[in-house]
Amino acid sequence: MAMISADNRGLRLATRYAVLVLIALIFVFPLVFMVMSSLKPSQQLLEDSANLRAFLPVGDISFDNYTDAFRRAPVATFVFNSVLVTGVTVLLSLLICSAAGFAFVFVDWKGRNLLLAVLLATLILPFETIAIPMLLMVAHLPWIGMEGLTWGWLNSYRVQIIPFIADGLTVFLFVQYFKDLPGELIEAARVEGASWGQIYRRIVMPLSGPILATAAILKFLVMYNQYLWPLMVTQEEGYRPVMVGLQYFFQLNVAWGEVMAYLSLITVPVLAFYLYLQKAFIASIASTGVKG
Amino acid sequence: MTFMKMAASAAVLAWASAAQAQETLSMWYHGAGNEVELKLINEVISDFNASQSDWKVELQSFPQAAYNDSVVAGALAGNLPDILDVDGPNMPNWAWAGYMQPLPIDESKIASFLPGTKGIWDGKLYSIGLWDAAVALVTRQSTLDELGLRKPTVEQPWTRDEFMAALDAAKAAGKWEYPLDLGMAWTGEWYPYAFSPFLQSFGGDIVDRSTYKTAEGALNGDAALAFGEWWQGLFQNGYAQATQDPADRDGGFAAGKYAFSWNGNWAALGALAAFEDTVFLPPPDFGAGPKIGGASWQFGVSATSKHPEGAAAFIEFALQDKYLAAFSNGIGLIPATPTASEMVDNYKSGGPLAVFGEYSSKMALVRPVTPGYVVQAKVFEKALADIANGADVAATLDAAADEINADIEKNGGYGH
Amino acid sequence: MASKFTVSNRTGWLMAGPAILLIAGFVILPFFLAIGLSFTNQRLVSPNPTEFVGLSNYRQLLGVATVTLEPLRDDAGAVVMKDGEPEYPSIRSLTRNNPDRPDLAGMREWFSFSLGGEAKTFVLARDVVFMKAVVNTFIFVIVVAPVQAGLALGLALLINQRLRGINVFRAIYFMPVVVSIVVVSLLWRLIYDGQSGLLNNLLDAISFGLIPPVNWLGDPSTALGAIIAMSIWQAVGFQMVIWLSGLQTISPTLYEAAAIEGASKWQVFRYVTWPGLRNTAVLILIVITMQAFGLFAQIDVMTNGGPLDSTQTIVFQAVERGYGKQDISGGSAISVILFVIVLSISLIQRFLTREKS
Fold it and tell me: What is the CATH number of domain B24-133+296-365?
């Protein structure tokens, strides 16, 4: 009897892992295809793409595509620009949108219901549809910097950062999350004389790990994948981000090997960011357990 | 010591005053990501900068696929360079919109240039190209021999019947996946550039060129309907594929998948490398004469440039035969002048690609010279893709003509 | 929450102010400009002065008409048949140069139906492509929203087990999300390839050659489905993570109580898990719907709206017109229409999922 049930447990466990692995294969195969292809010459890559060799490092394997990609385009500059713009935007966005979410959920003030409704309505607008009016706007905005007062934001980092710091979706994420935090906790703290700043910093933020991680990933993805906007506002190569850089590889005869190498390269920072966040993310979920 | 010091400070002074007198000219070019092309244009620029002390050209390059959007965005934001390059058929749109100004270059300097290289709008020269491009029907001599086909010539191109008989023969031979590679994978400008000459050879056109006020009759008249039926037949009867793998476009002919390939001179060297007996045949004559598209990238001066004379000086400098030849050697395009062609092994008389120059000078028709072309090209592309995929020919061409007419009307006739 | 301790106008404005200002300046203001443009004939590239044209852009997009036609009859009065179907007068003859019906000029057949009898009703639209784009977008949303949310919940439940190495699987399932949609679309274009694509070869191998190769993106009947499948594959991991954060905040004591009562797995899900996911469900549904209505990048990279308009979408049309065809006022009008559609849907959604108190 005991042996049978142990066997059963082993079998059940094996089935579970088999299911998990099968699903994992479905999610991971195009990425394996991408990385493996980046190691192959274009002609072989296209021949291999028709069969299982697409997933294997076989044939003429080298890092030539990577060196060629660096020769074709200033890849390092593009990645640096994207990481800088994305990083700064994510940080500012978390700060400003969480503060707004906090104000909308915990603080009673005149106009908050109306403003919240308006803010939520804005998360419907696809960026493409307001890009042209916005271009006309930023081309004439003032800025005070090293050279004093200047007009026009084109060819800068700020034009890629500032318009994207706050958005309806991020505020909405925080609002939905904060609603589930126990309101009595905040009220009690108020009664005991804690300032709003203290409550935000010491009580709410420490409980917000999961939502900070979610909002950060979402914003990161949007920013890192920007194409249309930087194309319109950066005429100088030095300010271009990775997705505009991708166009460098689509010449008349596409060098697919280099494309795959470039795609692999620009995907690395995103994966690293996610893996880093996942750790923080899970730790914070485990430590809170507030809801319920 | 004192002498040395004096010399040094004199040199510094001279340098400083030269730097002050020198004006910077900004220039945009579509070659980002293309190493060879960038090297060539940079050579022209550094030669120009070294040749005189009034102007200094500074280059900003853009990836080709994003170039037009960048220029439009730059213009909207009031941020155009002094010199820009422009795809030939786009020039009227930009000139009409006030992005560009007429190019002050003496006519005599460009008298010998191929017709497709001169961007003329409203009677004035706005842009000039160092090269032109041409398309030919690419095949192998051995294929012609095997199928028992007459080799067409400029004087006597294939008729429609001969062309279709050639496709039939190739199909019957069963040696190829498809008889004809049209390049359907290259969406975008390729469609109007490569396929509208077929329509024109049938006697139709994208828009009525006598007035440029309507597409009615040109794009949906009897000739256009005949073209549309023929075009749809190519796909329905298995002569060509309506959706094509981009890789097949790049390497399909070399891999022996197609008997004939409708392709440009920029791909010609690759075809020759694959098969020594590759031949570049003239386009078939569908009734109104054999036609291919003309005009490639050209240089012009932006309307906002404060130094049009400097910009023109640079463009004139770039028009030297040696640069025309260098570009041709580097990226395989047809040099704009006969004298420059003689400096290029591929294009000098008797050279393997010389026929392209001949087609370009004798059969090239520029795409409709109108600011509305940008929209018309899009409408035409969609109509051809839809017809290839089986849409009703008459209804599709009618709708395309209506859309073009509505656009012309919305734009107050585009200044014609 | 409203007590004298929580009221503070100064704090509210101070903390929400920066976000409100930024959104007002960089979202709402440009959108009002876009609304303004939609009532003009503004072009992206043009020297002509801008004119106010009223609702003309909207009429052009939304104009619809119906005509009911009797089949053609020959001299003997018998119905003319063509390919086994009665033949009707051509729509072309009605809409082009027809002095009797100037209102139909420029319209095209959208679809037709017959309510019994020989007469057939033809629905004509002034802009058939836009109508198809609206229909495709709705199909996309209606399929993607429930399927993606459901699959994501399934994955979240699956990944919420205590198993060694489960974090690795979680990371893998999430991976497609972190890869740009443009990159993903490029990869899948190769995978879906009609001739030598990986998918066709895979199906061929699995079925021992019984499944013939399909031109996934080149066939009007499969193109939208192929894009739907890829979109779900790409984004499902993100919703999985949101579900997961919802799942992990359900108190373990509730599960223990259910176990003591001897509840079945389904009962546990129905009475413990699902009620605990309420807010999460609302969030996920709204986010998916919004994102699905914005469908653009996949289309731009993979099909350009074709073949035969089978993958046209609203945002793709807005961009194609505004930028490609330089008709910025027409593109703006499409944006405004989209805004109105999505706003009404989200109001309905909110009404249906309102907390009943």
Answer: 3.40.190.10
